[in-house]
Amino acid sequence: MYAFSRAVNSIHSEDVKQLMKQASGKNLISFAGGMPNNDLFPVEQIDEIYNSLPEGLKKLCFQYGPSSGYPPLIKSLETYLKSKGLVVGDNKILITTGSLQAISIITQEFVNEGDIILTENPCFVGALTVFETFGAEIQSIPIDENGINIEALKSKIQSLDRQPRFLYITPNYHNPAGIIYSPERKKELLEVLSGTGIILIEDDAYSDLYFDKEEKHLLKPMKSFGVKDVEIIYTGSFSKILGPGFRLGYMLSSEEIFDKAETVKQGLDTCTSTFMQILANEFLAQNKLEPYVTFLRSEYLERKNLLQKYLKTYMPEEVSWNEPKGGFYVWLKLPAHIKSTDVFKESVAKGVVFVTGRTFDPAGRKDDRLRLSFSNMPKDQIEKGVKILSEAIIKVLRNSKVVLS
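Structure (tokenized):
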């Protein structure tokens, strides 16, 4: 037996490993993967971009770059973020190897073992794994359809014997719950954090994937509100709007936080892939992103509508769910007396996988929910998948009634 460090004993790391296997499993109908469908990637556009690069820029693709990021991409990102209302001038952008690296960098920057981190419940499992790896004590606050529960947050902060280092949230098309924070809830949240010294990490991977442009105003980042007495670090990603294989994310923060984050970044991987940064920059600079994301919105809307249609057709009346207004996810609520892990055992035997609710609970216990991702699903498999899943739930419900009687 090896004497492994405490850092590798994350209770959620096995969930992440299983999730990645399930998402790409052959001969499975998978609602598990929170990722785009392979057939939607902009292969032709990227081919065209690379083939048209000058020889010198092609050579640069293979070279190391600055730890902070490829300067032309940072410039292009400034324009992109300004279009979201973010004030870039007073802040600095750090390019990261996926937004999960940004979360990891921030955690290394601020968290010592035993420090408290606040999260939502449910919470993005990748972030939970990072927080556990660095030995943080995670305290979670429930969410509802409008965002984090403000009274529960106030109560939690008051009950703690020491100040949390930060609060981590995903306010736009939440993973896994699919909700958007209402403007009122965002304002209330900032009022609660005001003057506490608790940093807010605003993780925003999905806000470009809205279904109705009339609701675009709801996606305004809190970092754009101009609140002076709450430190906000904004993180974003190209994984959902260009491709996860690019492994490109970024963080926008004050200069002081940026400087320490760049130091951490140097110790992790020196720099993010120059090759991918150059391709992404050209995609942005040549104004290819918005037409492509417009195409993605229509594709995901079609998949969401199909999923909603078949959930209404096949699901037993005891099951309820949200109808998302964007993003990738539907969050099903089961009757309290059955577990999504039991449903999973039944459905995987019939060839359908999803992600259990327990995966997203920071404590790894609450298991009356399940996450369905429609983004990666072939449209012609959605009905069959929902039908099998519904049959699995009905079987578990029936068995639970027999036990109860």
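The first strand starts at residue 29 and ends at 30. The CA atoms of residues 239 and 245 lie 7 Å apart.
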